[in-house]
Amino acid sequence: MKPTASKMVAVAAVMALGAMFMSSVSSEAAEKQGVVKSAFGKTTDGAAVDLYTLTNKSGIVAKITSYGAILTEVHTPDRTGKKGNIVFGFDNIEGYLKGHPYFGATVGRVANRIAKGKFTLEGKEYSLAVNNGPNSLHGGIKGFDKAVWKASVVKSGDGPSVKFTHHSPDGDEGYPGAVDVTVVYTLTNKNSVRIEYTATSTKATPINLTNHTYFNLRGEGDVLGYEMLINADNYTPVDDTLIPTGSISAVKGTPLDFTYPHAIGEHIKELPGDPNGYDHNYVINGGGKGLTLTARCYDPQSGRVVEMQTTEPGVQFYTGNFLDGTLTGVGGFNYQIHDAFCLEAQHYPDSINHPNFPSCVLRPGQKYHQVTEYTFSTK
Ligand code: BGC
């Protein structure tokens, strides 16, 4: 039997409706789980920058931009299930271009300080830009945090994942060797942001990559009441420009002891010579050999917990001591002193000038590899 014209129109209409339904279902599914890429603006050189929004099975959201491979937002539920952003950042490129203290950034080639911006490697002395008092900090004037990275969505059985790559030429910011670096962010279905770094170099060069996320587990106010645990019996004491003296000292009996959980603010005023707050490198117990518990922080008010693990031997615990209310970020949050804490996985500061510290030198033929995970939960 031949279908009549009216029947054919009806079938076509049903098919069209079906297609519309399917596409709305699949775009909803994409928003629910997976990766959505959107434009984030342009740098002052006119380079286009994207934002990748990752959503995992339980609806946790992490956003990363190709500018600086920066983690811009992380939305997790509090103990009542209400979701909110728990990291500092901006929702547009302009915020980052105006200047900021490494919010969420991928920092390199060398995170933290190099004394006087100088080091000698294989008999040659290198001079870097001095951008923090007398020292070089966080990779120099234009570190990896200010590069536009290439990005691609990758398949991972663990959850939505995006890979960022960057080529740093020989002599970049004064460092020897051309370095190719890859950073893979995965928002796992176990509610972790996992950051995996690899790098190779054409010449021996120091390398010390980190992520500089500022956490505020309730989206407002200071972090002094949060309970912090740091899995470290020792730290690296510093001079008054925050360069390690070279010794490794016990935290026991000092305001640096977080081997038992207690409020960040409890002993903050007792810190010798640094009334501003914590800005110290801790030597992780058993660290540097594999993924090791580094720290755990709990906000009694929101119930949120973040637990950190890393393969690095050290972690910089920093309490946003230089935030001064001049920056306002996502959600209109005005960032004041002690409104965040950072846990920066790293080799110890100024390692390149301290032969007794674990080496941060990457040589041709070797592969740098670093994994850090921040896992979110509530209690
Ligand atoms: C440093 C601080 C610095 C902050 C922002 C931290 O890693 O230890 O001294 O102010 O980064 O640059």
Record keyword descriptors for this entry.
379 residues, mainly beta, Beta-galactosidase, Chain A, domain 5, five-stranded antiparallel beta sheet, disordered N terminus, binds beta-D-glucopyranose
Explain the overall architecture.
The protein has 379 residues and is mostly beta strands. It has one domain: Distorted Sandwich (Beta-galactosidase, Chain A, domain 5). It is built from two helices and 29 strands. It has helices spanning 5-32, 93-97; strands at 34-42, 48-55, 61-65, 70-77, 83-85, 106-107, 113-114, 118-121, 124-127, 136-137, 150-154, 161-168, 179-187, 192-201, 205-206, 210-211, 227-230, 234-235, 249-250, 262-263, 279-283, 292-298, 304-310, 314-318, 327-328, 334-335, 342-346, 361-362, 368-378. The chain has a nine-stranded antiparallel sheet with strand order 11-12-13-14-29-23-22-17-20, with no helix packed on it. Strands 1-2-3-4-5 form a five-stranded antiparallel sheet. Strands 19-18-21-24-27 form a five-stranded antiparallel sheet, with no helix packed on it. Residues 101-102, 112, 138, 242, 279, 316, 318, 322, 344 line the site of beta-D-glucopyranose (BGC).
What is the secondary structure topology, with strand pairs?
Layout: H1 5-32, E1 34-42, E2 48-55, E3 61-65, E4 70-77, E5 83-85, H2 93-97, E6 106-107, E7 113-114, E8 118-121, E9 124-127, E10 136-137, E11 150-154, E12 161-168, E13 179-187, E14 192-201, E15 205-206, E16 210-211, E17 227-230, E18 234-235, E19 249-250, E20 262-263, E21 279-283, E22 292-298, E23 304-310, E24 314-318, E25 327-328, E26 334-335, E27 342-346, E28 361-362, E29 368-378
Bound molecules: beta-D-glucopyranose.
